[in-house]
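Hi Q.,

Before the meeting this afternoon, I wanted you to have the acetoacetyl-coenzyme A prediction in hand. No need to reply - just skim if you have a minute. The sequence and ligand are here:
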Amino acid sequence: MDFNLLPKQRQIRRMAREFAKAELAPIAHEIDDEGRFPWEAVEKMGPLNFFGMQAPRQYGGAGTDSISYCLVIEEISRVCGAMGLTIAVHNSVVVYPLSQFGDDEQKAKFLPPLTAGQKIGSFCLTEPNAGSDAMSIESTAIGEGDSYIVNANKIFVTNGGVADTLVIFTSVKPGDVKKGFSAIIVERGIPGFEVGLLENNSGMRANPVCSIILTDCRVPKANLLGKEGDGFKVAMGALDTGRIGIAAQAVGIGQGSLDVSLKYAKERIQFKTPLARHQAIQMMLADMGTMVEAARLLTLQAAHIKDQGGDLSCPSAMAKLFAGRMASKVASMGVQIHGGYGYSKDYPIERYFRDARVTEIYEGTNEIQQIVIARELLKREVD
Ligand code: CAA
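Predicted structure with the ligand bound:
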């Protein structure tokens, strides 16, 4: 097993790190505080290919491997979790399923503006009565001639406030959701399309997470992604990939928490010596660094398996479960090292602490990951 990154992967990581330091570090606190989506930084990410990292080159994508993708998400999230989230969702659960399940016309129409970052993507699965139990969606798409009439109430839509291209999960057979579960591409602004309530979330506040309501929206049947009834597999396939991106995001938040805690521990004097010289603090830092590294390895292993074409469900669930828990724990330890200042919005560790928590929830809660992992483990023969 070779744990070394390729020169190209190192170069991509360096580029993402430099971008994050130059463009995101100066605004990360302010955009969180104001709950503002930073278009000025987003516009600079397009030319760097951050919005089409793994998409085919013929549609403007960079066609990079999954390890490079994780390194970029990690470096962005290390500085600004909300922007890590924006590009992770856009790439993993919008551009990826379009690239995988879209027909040639759909790819030619929808991918180029998405991969260029001129349009932002959203993945709309969750509803008021369908969260972890994704099969319980109530949204419908009723065929009428060469269109569907779509009625949907989608909540917690990441990027929702700024998204132009949305993958919406509905049922074309309202009486039989399992058979009718379908993925449909919807464009912002068509008649009946409404951006609803902006969530007043605890963390990731620069990402406009909101509800999307479709009322009698007429959508061409040409926008069906895959076949009628294939939607659950499209959603689960996208989430298998997406969970690696969220794991990378959690690694970035963990690393960012460690970075600021190391710096603070060297600067802060207590009992006439820097915190870093106190053994209790050193032990915390050692545990934090070890946990970040373990989560990184699990995440890059899942990315490697994806690139090898292996079965992703279990490795991506393991990476997300472990990395999400790690990010919450490491950020919390970082708050502890900062003492009273760690509880103040004036210090970045407070933002990492809030941002970390949701990596244990979205794209499948820890408990959903445990279900996916346990099902896979129980299938295996014990030697
Ligand atoms: N890939 C392909 N197909 C899959 C699959 C996968 N990973 N997982 C399941 N399927 C298929 C199954 O093979 C089965 O097919 P058949 O009917 O042909 O046999 C079908 O899908 C149903 O599978 P299950 O019986 O396993 O379905 P289930 O109802 O028990 O659900 C679950 C399984 C794992 C719990 C699933 O519902 C799940 O992952 N839930 C969590 C949903 C989730 O992550 N939501 C987050 C939303 S996105 C978000 O967070 C917002 C954002 O923008 C960040």
